[in-house]
Amino acid sequence: MSGRPEDATLAGRVRQRIAAATTPVTPAAIVSAVRAEPTAAVLGDTAVLRIADRVHDDLVGAGPLAPLLTDPEVTDVLVNGTRVWVDRGAGLHQVAVPVGTVEDVRRLAQRLIASAGRRLDDGSPYADARLPDGTRLHAVLPPVATEGPYLSLRTFRHRPFTLDELVSQGTVPRPVAPVLAAVVAARLAYLVTGGTGSGKTTLLNTLLGLVPATERIVLVEDAAELQPGHPHVVGLQARTANVEGSGVVSLGDLVRQALRMRPDRLVVGECRGGEVVDLLAALNTGHDGGAGTLHANTPSDVPARLEALGMLGGLPRAALHAQVIAALQVLFQVRRGDRGRVLESICLLLPEGPDRVVTVVPAWVRGRGLGLAARAFGALLRDRGVAVPPILGEPWPGSAGPA
Question: Which of 147, 304, 344, 368 would give a disulfide with 335, using CB separation of 3.0 to 4.6 Å?
Answer without folding.
Answer: 344
